[in-house]
Amino acid sequence: RKEVEQDPGPFNVPEGATVAFNCTYSNSASQSFFWYRQDCRKEPKLLMSVYSSGNEDGRFTAQLNRASQYISLLIRDSKLSDSATYLCVSSRGTGGFKTIFGAGTRLFVKA
Amino acid sequence: DAEITQSPRHKITETGRQVTLACHQTWNHNNMFWYRQDLGHGLRLIHYSYGVQDTNKGEVSDGYSVSRSNTEDLPLTLESAASSQTSVYFCASSEPGEETQYFGPGTRLLVL
């Protein structure tokens, strides 16, 4: 079983739709969580950190449920430019080698 | 602006050849990482370094080596390229104590 699992999708949604991705992690020692965005044939870039109390960044909302060991990302009012792969990431501490990347969920936003 | 670059961006080689992928960052970050990305697997850590002369094996280090002679560079060497090493390779860096990693643009390697 992979330490971080995501539904690969693809999710195909119309512009303006709300879409949610879930991600589960298996290592209860995981302390920090992130969502990265990766455009086609590009490098991953940090989208947002995920805090225990949940956090928002514009149209993006991230939630963490430690009891069930899952993380979610909600995108409201989807834009064409949101089309990308979203990587769920867990970290068991600073140092980088304890950072685990999920395989990603692909999102296509259609006009 | 600080950045992280990789070269070459695309490489075709033959099995058995030695290949070196370059990674150069101007962030002055101590931590540097090499990942490979394959369909269905996500990013997998190959090697990492926490500073000059420090190197460590990651999850999938067999057949790869790195060296760190200065802060800016972490070249990745494939000792004897195999077809299973066909992949996209990403270099990344981060500050000590920080979990956010900054990635280079990637190198697409095809081993024939």
How would you explain this protein's 3D organization?
The complex is a heterodimer of chains A (111) and B (112). Chain A is mainly β and 111 residues long. Chain A has no helices and 11 strands. In chain A, the strands form 2 sheets. In chain A, strands 2, 4, 5, 9, 10 and 11 form a 6-stranded mixed sheet that branches. In chain A, strands 1-3-8-7-6 form a 5-stranded antiparallel sheet, with no helix packed on it. The termini of chain A are far apart. The mean pLDDT of chain A is 93. With 112 residues, chain B is mainly β. In chain B, strand 4 and strand 5 form a beta hairpin. In chain B, the strands form 2 sheets. In chain B, strands 2, 4, 5, 6, 9, 10 and 11 form a 7-stranded mixed sheet that branches. The chains are: A mainly beta (111), B mainly beta (112).
Output the number of helix runs of chain B: 0
Alpha-beta classification of chain A: mainly beta
| Straight-line distance between termini of chain A | 37 Å
Biggest interface and its residues per chain?
A-B, 23 and 25 residues
Radius of gyration of chain A: 13 Å
Mean pLDDT of chain B: 95
Based on helices, strands and strand pairing, what is the structural class of chain B?
mainly beta
Q: Could you give the order of the helices and strands of chain B?
A: EEEEEEEEEEE
Number of helices of chain A: 0
* Subunit arrangement of the protein: heterodimer
- The helicity of chain B comes to under 10%
Strand content of chain A is over 45%
Q: SSE order of chain A, as H and E?
A: EEEEEEEEEEE
Largest sheet of chain B: 7 strands, mixed
